[in-house]
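Step 1: inspect the first sequence and its tokens.
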Amino acid sequence: MPLRKSWRWIGAFAPDMMLCVAQARVGLVRRSWWAVWDGKTLHEGTRAPFALQLDEGEPIEAETGPTWTRKTPLRVRGTVLGRELDAPGLLDESHGRHPRRTSWLWSAGAGVTTGGDAVVWNLVEGMHPGENTVWVNGTPHRVDPPRFDGIEGVADLRFTALATRAAKENYLVLASDYEQPFGTFTGSLPIAGELAQGFGVMERHEALW
């Protein structure tokens, strides 16, 4: 039987700062990490040297077999590496017995449309089809599973990477190969329409767990 996995990932997306803070568990193995792009430099570590205040919006949940996820739009506030942060973001909480070999493409971000609507999105291929969601002014709208172009874009969004987290790890019984760049988005979102500005992450992940 596949090992039980769980993780909690927080992202915040602003023009001059983007970050993620996460904890994960695979069986008995636990890991934590954080990363901050401050507009010039990517900072990374295993234990975040800052605390965040999370104001949660309306979440969505999805299940596929023995796996579950909840995605929640956020307002993220705090002092991060000496600078004040007040930005939209996303909370990803997931757990279950995912297949021994699992791979996915993912996009999470936030921005403003040309019509002035605030948007947050969660788009994925390879995980739960029912978790694909676009929040418009805080209201969630489920959307059809999108088409990904690797980590270059998704559906009608194009992505420009600014700073990339990436690693290949192999512990024989557990292995991970991922890229997760912070960057900017142009183009349009399902339901919401064309972006005036958009910031967030793309991710490619192949896991043996």
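Step 2: inspect the second sequence and its tokens, then contrast the two.
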Amino acid sequence: MKFGDILKSACTNLMRNKGRTILTIVAIFIGSFTIALTNGVNIGVNDYIDKQVSGVGGDDMMLISPKATVSMGNTDEPQKYDPEKKTSTMSQNATLNDKDVETIKEMDGMKDADSVKSYSINYISGASDEKYVFSSMPILGSLEVDLEAGKSVNQESKDFEINLAPEFVKSLGYKSAEDAVGKTVKLSTTASATGEETIVEAKIVGVRNQSLMQGGNSLLNQALIDELSAIGEQGLPESMLGQYGMVVATMDKATYSSDKEIADLKERLGEAGYAGQTVDDEIGMIRNIINAITGVLTMFGAIALLAASFGIVNTLFMSVQERTREIGLMKAMGLSSGKVFSIFSIEAALIGFLGSVLGILGAAGVGNLVNGIASDSFLSSLTGFTLIQFSWSSSGAIILIIMAIAFLAGTLPARRAAKLDPIESLRYE
């Protein structure tokens, strides 16, 4: 008896008692549907978090600032000032300089380090000529911008470019994100020493998608940052130039990739008077919470599958009992115990396959419906966020796992069928 014959026989046997088979498949369907839907939510949310993370910086990026110490009121005695340590209290801001940049760059575990220049913008104005308070930040490390329209700013270009935050599109007088791309805006900045105002014109090359972590922040390219910083430093004494509040360092992920190695790098930075923070430090807790919630929901699906497994056992036990004489006849005609075992095991796997596939298809249908409703209602402000997403790999894994569970559940009745004595089976009433 070939495998094709065994598979055909298993399919035929499942249809003998359609009601019982359908009820067992429905039980598998519920578990598969729950797991697939919660897994889709997990993929969708984590995909959006990944977009937000890439908008903050790459996983090899570390933001380094002067190490802060507690204020004097929280210590037993005054702390001595050490000019070699970059420390600060709540009321005193410390800065970094070019020497600090070189020190950080030469530390073991660092590939590169660049200063984040400080600048100020009074307001922004566009087509409407209305003036608005403007929040912005430079491109940090290997940041990948999640855009609604246009392209990312060019860090190598000498032209002044902006990736505009979506909150400013309508206010600046543009009809849509697409309409804003290519337009020129005016930025007002002031020299710290003289108080003289200067207007800098920049081109909108792209509009960002809504961001949970950087809402309202536009991104500026390096040429524009340099210009604004230079204007702000006009008239300042030499001793006040080249001061930075932060350094962006690129870690060597080839040798510093584990949590322990990164923690060791942060400890060495602390000993040198600096404080380092990775992107994962900023959003790691959010990701853990999302994974925990979807993990709990997946457990409900697993419980449903466990109940369905008992249904498979019951269905096949009853099938063995009803087909005892048939099994005895097949064995009397030369069918081996292994073949009998295979027929019932494949029946169980088929139940798992049908239930899991239907569950995933049902989850995909509900997911598309929910995504449509969500994008038009409670997620309308979060452009680029697809709540429920499915992948072939995860769907395939769910099907294989459920088939394996169903197969294992069917081994007990399959063994019973395989061990039946042909003579006793033929006498069975």
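Step 3: confirm your contrast with the notes below.
The chain has two domains: 3-54+285-427, 119-242. The longest helix spans residues 279-322.
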